Amino acid sequence: MAMLKKVVFLLIAANFAKSSFIDNVVEEIRKSQVEKKNTTEGVHWALIVAGSNGWYNYRHQADACHAYQILHNHGIPDERIVVMMYDDIANSEDNPTPGIVINHPKGKDVYHGVPKDYTGDDVTPKNFLKILQGEDMGMIGSGKVIKSGPNDHVFVNFVDHGAPGIVAFPDGELTAKSLNTAIKKMHKDKKFGKMVLYFEACESGSMFKNLLPKSISAYATTASNEKESSYACYYDQKRGTYLGDVYSVKWMEDSDKENLDVETLYKQFQIVKRETNTSHVMQYGDLKLNKDTVEEYQGKAEAKPITYPSVPLDAVPAPDVPMAILTHRLQAATTVEEQEKIVAEMTAILKMQEKIKATMKGIVGRATTDAKQARRILESQYDLEDHDCYEPVVQRFSMRCYRLSKYEHALRHLYALVNMCEEKISFGDIMKAIDDECY
After folding, report:
1. Per-residue pLDDT for 31 more than 70?
2. Predicted pLDDT of residue 439
3. What is the mean pLDDT of residues 250-257?
4. Per the confidence metrics, is the pTM higher than 0.85?
5. Which of 65, 74, 202, 413 is catalytic?
6. What is the per-residue pLDDT for 126?
């Protein structure tokens, strides 16, 4: 009897082991089929960037955090979403709701759960280009990069200040030429099947106009054309700053409520273009991609629709934000001391703006041959085509005169450098004029 029990036990154990073995084999086959399907059909990757810092620029990080929530809610896993932001507003001493960031006056917190992949001094143009192209980041940040393959869809969302041919970072600038060179190299190296870029910045159209090819399956939309400002919106009295940017909140509030498996990129572009009546929303690159559904870039998982109460945009041009904030604060001030302090800040800003304007006028005067040419340079807005002249000139101006990441108003005068390059004023003469004026 004991022997029979032992035989039965061994048979059961053997059968269980066999069953477990079969289960393991089946699971491995399933995993390999999923991996093969992902390799064939491709997966989503996303890079979200807020390129500024400081409480005045609250809106940029709020936009970036909101963008993350949309992609996360629609099923893109965190291991394939890379976030770059300075991360100095959520827990700022200026924040009346510590740890909470909102992107709409009646909206919920968008900061929770956001990956802190690259923060503070790691938010640079150099790191952005390395991350986008999937290069090894070593010990920098989380180390996450866009490891996309030939069938993958890559979504890039950038939010910050801009000027002709550049967008700003907390330290340094990303040039249009370097961005498009990276995109073309990624296409050549088969690092994406399709790529979509949403760019929020002043003159953001200049990052792609006549630069992003129509034949490499890359499509971009921008908050403005190549010669105008983008706009901030949603001034919040409690926080004393703007919560969002018009183009950004329009595409995100649309994605929050729409069926992304039905809505096309073109439909979203049309909606955002119509509702962003403060600037000209543009599209560039391979326009055939705008027939794709939004879910192909922002995630395919079904998400509960989110709608927001209608509130005034209170939109202002991005360059005017510091003065607009101080104007709001001045109106809300209840003591003479508060008013005097705010007026002093406004006066300091205006003085610096005049100083920057005078500096550029001086540079133009030194580089041009006569008063007529100088006036034309200062009063015109030429199309930027000569990037080889313009980009090093901008770098020299930022290094010798006003650091563009610190003096945002200086971005407003870079058109004069564009004009000098386009009028074929000697590169050496422009450089010398900058050095002499900003000794």
Report:
1. no
2. 85
3. 98
4. yes
5. 202
6. 98
Q: What is the 3-state secondary structure (H, E, C) of the chain?
A: CHHHHHHHHHHHHHHHHHHHHHHHHHHHHHHHHHHHHHHHHCCEEEEEEECCCCHHHHHHHHHHHHHHHHHHHCCCCHHHEEEECCCCCCCCCCCCCCCCCCCCCCCCCCCCCCCCCECHHHCCHHHHHHHHCCCCCCCCCCCCCCCCCCCCEEEEEEECCEECCEEECCCCEEEHHHHHHHHHHHHHCCCCCEEEEEEECCCHHHHCCCCCCCCCCEEEEECCCCCCCCEEEEEECCCCEEEEEHHHHHHHHHHHHCCCCCCEHHHHHHHHHHHCCCCCCEEEECHHHHHCECHHHHCCCCCCCCCCCCCCCCCEEHHHHHHHHHHHHHHHCCCHHHHHHHHHHHHHHHHHHHHHHHHHHHHHHHHCCCHHHHHHHHHCCCCCCCHHHHHHHHHHHHHHCCCCCCCHHHHHHCHHHHHHHHCCCCHHHHHHHHHHHCC
More confident residue, 9 or 143: 143
Quote the pLDDT of residue 41: 78
Largest Cα–Cα distance in the chain? 115
The Cα 162–Cα 182 span in angstroms is 19
R_g of the chain, CA atoms, integer Å: 26
**For residue 284, how many other CB atoms are within 10 A of its CB?**
21
Is 161 in the active site? yes
Q: Which pLDDT band, with edges at 50, 70 and 90, does 29 fall under?
A: very low
Per-residue b or e along 366-375, where b marks 16 or more CB atoms closer than 10 Å to that residue's CB: bbbeeeebbe
Within 8 A by CB and 6+ apart from 306, the residues are: 256, 257
Among 33-42, 309-318, 360-369, 378-387, whose mean pLDDT is lowest?
Answer: 33-42
Catalytic residue among 161, 387, 409, 413: 161
